[in-house]
Amino acid sequence: MHESVKRLARVATGLGLLWVAATAAASDSGDDPVSTIVGAGGLCLGVSGSGDAVGAMLLAQDCTGSVFQKWRFVKESSGDYLLVNAGSGMCIDVTAGSTSSGTVLQQWGCSGGTYQKWTLADQGAGRFSITSRYNKLVLKGPGTGGRAGVEQWPWSGASSQLWTAPTASVVVASPGPTNNSLVTFRSVRNGSCLGVEGASTASGAKVKAQSCGSTSFQQWKALKNAGGEYQFANVGSGLCMDLPDASIAPGTPIRQWDCSGGSWQKWQLNGTGRGHYYVTSRLSGQALDEDLHDTAGSVIQRAYSGKPSQQWQITAADAQAPSDARRRDLGAEKPAHR
Description:
Blueprint: H1 3-14, H2 22-26, E1 34-36, E2 44-47, E3 58-61, E4 70-75, E5 81-85, E6 91-93, E7 106-108, E8 118-124, E9 127-132, E10 138-140, E11 151-153, E12 181-187, E13 193-196, E14 207-210, E15 220-224, E16 230-234, E17 240-242, E18 255-257, E19 267-273, E20 276-281, E21 287-290, E22 299-302, E23 312-316
Antiparallel strand pairs: 1-4, 2-3, 4-5, 6-7, 8-9, 10-11, 12-15, 12-23, 13-14, 15-16, 17-18, 19-20, 20-23, 21-22
């Protein structure tokens, strides 16, 4: 939803009109886990005032057992969550579409927009961070001893940015490989490895599922940002895994291109257990999928369905020097092709 449409919807809500999107109806499912969300100092994530007001600010409060301190975790196919207040039925929302650090977050009618989608990333010891898919800032409480609004800030790893869900079993994104590590992707479906077609160093060459070997063109440098997203730079070519023309169309083949840092080159790893992951695009929310209709092993993007063709074992790779004399500085910023 464009911001202008969002503003119109908010005006409609202020006039007492019903504004609930289809995703909000899904939030009423009894299958979604419900829990308090507890931060630093044992404070609970809650809603100011009566709790059922549109635009009410989020607060870190003493835990009272109130229904307005309980949240429904509604997971989407991308692996992101809508966080729906059990008392008001409204979603945690980035206030006015802000990208500014320090903005206090609010609740609003659930629209399913990116400003209401949150990535839960495992930070160890049962704690997780809550990162906005819209602006990549994380929820931050006031810290021990504080009673203040819950804000959005860049990730720092501080205790005030760590949360638990004591009474819900929620699936959080695995930490994944460390920044700058070398990894291989092995298909759970057939054991093939993710590489570059023809060991090509050309921009636009396809990423394919191939018979595994020791080539550097089946090895990827994991470039991880503070929000837990990755770029994957091929060791053989120095180019990054990429969505051509920033396409969000299902079935788009994955290719390699100069590393630009654009959202079309950023990927999220979602753990499914046993060391397996599905890999989703930040731009489209769709998952890497072996194209079962292409015997040449094309890899495309498609909505996540849980099939083996979308599951990958990601493991550390033995270092291999790029074999091409024109090898690039992996991960360096390059001009975008968009």
